[in-house]
Amino acid sequence: MNLKSHLIFTLYTVYGILLKGISGQYPLVQNVTVTEGGTANMTCRVEYNDNTSLQWSNPAQQTLFFGDKKALRDNRIELVRASWAELTISISDVTLSDEGMYTCSLFTMPVRTAKAYLTVLGVPQKPEIDGFTKPAVEGDHITLTCMTHGSKPAADLRWFRNEKEVKGAKEVNASGKTFTVRSSLQLHVDRNDDGVAYTCKVDHVALTQTPQQATEVLEVHYAPRVEIVHSPAVPQEGQYLKLECVSKGNPSPDPVMWTKDGSELPDLDRMIVEGRDLTFTSLNKTDNGTYRCEATNHLGTSSAEYILYVYDAPTTLPPSTTPPPHPIPPDPTAQLGARASDPTVTGNRDPNALGQHGTDHALIGGVVAVVVFVTLCLIIVLGRYLARHKGTYLTNEAKGADDAPDADTAIINAEGNHAHAEEKKEYFI
Ligand SMILES: *[C@@H]1O[C@H](CO)[C@@H](O)[C@H](O)[C@H]1NC(C)=O
Ligand SMILES: *[C@@H]1O[C@H](CO)[C@@H](O)[C@H](O)[C@H]1NC(C)=O
Ligand SMILES: *[C@@H]1O[C@H](CO)[C@@H](O)[C@H](O)[C@H]1NC(C)=O
Ligand SMILES: *[C@@H]1O[C@H](CO)[C@@H](O)[C@H](O)[C@H]1NC(C)=O
Ligand SMILES: *[C@@H]1O[C@H](CO)[C@@H](O)[C@H](O)[C@H]1NC(C)=O
Ligand SMILES: *[C@@H]1O[C@H](CO)[C@@H](O)[C@H](O)[C@H]1NC(C)=O
């Protein structure tokens, strides 16, 4: 930066070079990081050496190698290279207890040393998920806990709900040199959680290739919910009709029960129940009625109803050009559709009423139009009446009228006045 510090820096550099040149023998080492179970190479180098011996010793100050001579009986420790410029040893099958400060000594007078720290990474064990006792019931609060032992430094745990990350609560405890990490997830399960996979992944420096993970697939039991799907939309006499009882529940509600107007199906020759489906081979007008499908499991019962109305078969003309014998709503699927039954709703959907609804709408529209027209007429007549009878209002009305130059202004001014508004109302009653 400034000249002074630059000068000092230059001096130190020159001094360093001189020192090396003159008495210049230094052991040079590097810190080493190794994963538990791996092999660590400890290298000590000297740039200038007059055949002075190098030595490696462990954190307990025991000599491992003195030059190429092995000093400690430990099969895991081997010589890699020994020369006047280098002493490299390897420690295989490293354990956490191998961690510490290693010393390389150069036996000059005086002895020069360099220290290298061997860091051993603890590999996290395969995580385990617990806290889930199969199966859960819809509405349950459950806590999934993922735990991994043996990491150093402490591992990170991440949760995924079907590949999408969700946040858990992490807790780290030290046990000896390693850490036990736990992450928990609070869940309020519903039917949408049934079959969902929750995965706990371990993030750690020692896990380079294969990520450690555990997965728990939730099983959630829930009461059935049924729905009737039908085709065709407008059933006609003689036609084939299929009513499908779509039921969802866990455990699966099997079989489903079909009834007509509260009792058993009357004609099992033409009404065929197969699995969840009810099919009519050839519709007859006598088939009119409310069909109900009911599904039950140990958590509850659900039912759906379908009101069948069999229309006349097209006789004279092809169906495409024949106007329907009864008024058919524009979207019969929506109108005649199955209705998932709610115990509180009592189903009574007379298809005849659907036609009447159309007429009713037209009628109501007409009545509303007439009422609006009459109201407008009344307002106009009333306005004229008020203008003619200004005298009455001059006496009855407040401020607005007093300082108005003429009757019209008086009425305008008086608008918004509460008394006037009330008086006006009386005419409408
Ligand atoms: C240690 O050194 C040997 C010999 O140079 C080499 O084959 C090996 O890959 C090294 N191991 C590590 C972990 O660096
Ligand atoms: C170092 O030792 C080797 C062999 O032991 C010898 O040939 C060499 O001259 C020695 N070098 C010095 C600088 O003493
Ligand atoms: C080596 O590790 C020790 C202990 O962790 C640390 O104090 C030192 O700064 C490290 N040296 C280098 C060169 O990273
Ligand atoms: C961590 O330690 C606390 C207190 O000793 C204990 O309650 C908790 O269960 C421990 N957690 C783990 C993950 O071991
Ligand atoms: C409908 O049922 C009645 C009585 O069972 C029968 O007489 C009639 O022929 C049937 N109609 C059709 C179209 O099948
Ligand atoms: C079926 O409904 C139609 C229309 O309401 C009606 O004409 C017919 O008589 C009904 N048949 C029975 C058996 O209820």
Automatic annotation (TrEMBL):
SMART domains for this protein: 4.1m, IG, IGc2
Topology class, membrane: Single-pass type I membrane protein
A GO CC term attached to the entry: membrane
This protein's UniProt keywords: Disulfide bond, Immunoglobulin domain, Membrane, Repeat, Signal, Transmembrane, Transmembrane helix
Compartment annotation: Membrane
Signal peptide: 1-24
UniProt region (Disordered), positions on chain: 316-353
Sequence ranges of Pro residues compositional bias: 316-332
Regions annotated as coiled coil: none
CDD domains from the UniProt entry: IgV_1_Necl-3
Domain (Ig-like) ranges: 27-119, 127-219, 224-309
Main localization of the protein described in the UniProt heading: membrane
Transmembrane segments: 362-382
Pfam families recorded: C2-set_2 (PF08205), I-set (PF07679), V-set (PF07686)
One annotated GO biological process: homophilic cell adhesion via plasma membrane adhesion molecules
Family that this chain belongs to: Belongs to the nectin family.
Name by which UniProt lists this protein: Cell adhesion molecule 2-like isoform X2
Source organism phylogeny: Eukaryota, Metazoa, Chordata, Craniata, Vertebrata
